[in-house]
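Re: weekly structure request thread

Next one in the queue (352 aa):
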Amino acid sequence: MSDVKPRLVPDNETLISHVDSASMAKAPSSGPTPKHWAKKYRTEIAASSSSVLSTFATYPLDSVKTRMQAYRFLNFTDCVQHTYKTEGFKSFWRGSLAPLVSVTLVRTISFSIYQKAKYKYSAAIGRATGHDEPLVVVNRPGSIPTPGTLACFAAAGATAGAAITLLACPFEIMKVSSQISVLMAKSNASSVDGAVRQSYENKGTFKTAQNIVRHRGVMGLYTGYRLHLLRDTIGTSFYFATYESSKQLLVKFQGSSSPTSPLSVAIAGGICGLVSWAIIYPIDSAKAHYQRDCLAKGKGEFVEMPKIQFFSRGMYRGLGVSMARSCILNMVFFSSFEFIKKRINKLENPLD
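Done, posted below.
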């Protein structure tokens, strides 16, 4: 009996487990059949398309969340009513261009990095332990999460989150500025920093970027970078570990033969959004406070870095709306993501 361990083949390769002799006899000798071009980039196509859909649909909730973090409102309804009365209906989508571009780009690259990283970590864990690779275990029918699978997904998620922060940070500060620009302009408008605050009011995405550079210099676009890096490294680690493990358990309990059954994917997407945001929310609040304070200052002016207080009630303002948004966003995103990948897989390969 062979003691060779099974090897998981990455998404962009083809695994053929059984081929009958008749098929082998008819097979051309010129090499493997060429794939449809979309299959090579299915992760990127699915991630970008799903990002646009999910981000646009849930952006108003993100806008309200940022306002509640940066300024005091009685509750979600109070924030919505105040924003609508003072800024109008369109204000809920103000600054949406930056995240639509950035989230699409960031998610596409992040998922690509994650896909590659999880195969690397899986192989490394398999070699280190002498057992089956975590991804082999995950794809085994009826399996449950193990320390190896959790470590693989968490490490790959952390790698993707840390790698993408350099690209995401400038878009994040532009989004935050656009969302709170009116509130910031009306806050302490008579102070020394009043002119700086008012200069951000009702600016478009790219004018906001120019304004940040004018007041804070080019590095102003990376205001709050360390907090952003901490948030995304931890958050993305829990995000992917929770999604993959929840999906694995749901498939098992559902008794489905498909590792990506629609119901399991949607529920797992919602769960991973709730878990990741619940863990990183105080870090995100500290980042929002710090970026708000920095935007009101000129280049070179000192702004104290806020403490991350996990047990302070004030750090959780807007948590409910944020978790609701994240749950809906990720249910939509992963359902669309897996659906598009399946559709791409069904495309016919070109003839020789």
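The radius of gyration is 23 Å. The chain is about 65% helix and 0% strand.
Next request, please.
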